[in-house]
TrEMBL record:
General function of this protein: Assembly factor required for Rieske Fe-S protein UQCRFS1 incorporation into the cytochrome b-c1 (CIII) complex. Functions as a chaperone, binding to this subunit within the mitochondrial matrix and stabilizing it prior to its translocation and insertion into the late CIII dimeric intermediate within the mitochondrial inner membrane.
InterPro entries in alphabetical order: Complex1_LYR_dom (IPR008011), Complex1_LYR_LYRM7 (IPR045298), MZM1/LYRM7 (IPR050435)
Source organism (scientific name): Pocillopora meandrina
Gene Ontology annotations for the cellular component aspect, listed alphabetically: mitochondrial matrix
Full protein name: Complex III assembly factor LYRM7
Amino acid sequence: MSSLRSKVLSCYRSLHRTRLKVFRDDSFALEAGKQRIRTEFLKHKNETDPAKLLNLFKWQRVQRRS
């Protein structure tokens, strides 16, 4: 597996783990968060430009810290 692919998968898993912690008692928010994460990743699934992917990773890190 390429390192870029592993970073993308790691980012995806990290967002889902964060979603589970943040919305642990809210089933509606858990489901909405799951759908939003999936939608955003599917929107960019054909992206191959490393610079654009790094920009998306930065967005993910900012969202996790907020």
